[in-house]
Amino acid sequence: MDALGKDVKPGANRNILVYINFSIGTNLMQRSRALSHFRNFTRNHLAKLRTPFYQYLDDLGNSRFVLSPPGNGLDCHRTWEALLMGAIPIVLSSTLNSLFSGTPTIIVSTWEQVTVASLRAINNSLLTTHIPAALLAQYWHAQFLSVRQSLQSSSVIDR
Predict the structure, then answer these.
(1) Residue 138: inside a domain, yes or no?
(2) What is a single molecular function from GO for this protein (predicted)?
(3) I need a labelling partner for 105 at 20 to 30 A (CA). Which of 19, 23, 83, 84 fits?
């Protein structure tokens, strides 16, 4: 776990355009669609199953974009790991979109919206070498306190 967020490479130094590493079985419909669309992209990297964690993190750190389709739920650990390693996750639009505010996440309605040309057009400056605030515990603590304060002000909960 020490490698998360450490020595993050600038976007220009990343040689994988789209990193693909997931099990189709946790959401057969969405994940097979995603794999079918992205499989033949230029400079993608389709990882072998059971990639050692250190290799997985290294792959994320060498990737500009990380495909992160929903698995057993709407969210996926891969999205947050990609962000910690400075890559840009590509996710499907959902009720969780607001969670990605302040992060360089690409949210699409369909996988077909993403093309090699559209990814190459994205400026390397979006690939960050710092950890977005939304990945830090302090950010979420402040969010919870803000909601609590708002609810207390409106007398929804007792003070």
Answers:
(1) no
(2) ribitol beta-1,4-xylosyltransferase activity
(3) 23
Rounded Cα distance, 110 and 34, in Å: 9
- In this predicted model, what pLDDT tens digit does every residue of 111-157 receive, in sequence order? 999 999 999 888 765 655 556 677 667 776 777 788 888 887 876 55
Strand partners for 16 = 63
Q: Is residue 144 part of a domain?
A: no
Token pair for 111: 């996988």
Angle between helices 53-61 and 77-84 (to 10 degrees): 60
Query: What's the predicted TM-score (pTM) here?
Result: 0.80
Show Cβ contacts of residue 1 under 8 Å, excluding neighbours closer than 6 positions. none
Look at the block and give the residue holding tokens 């997985």.
Answer: 56
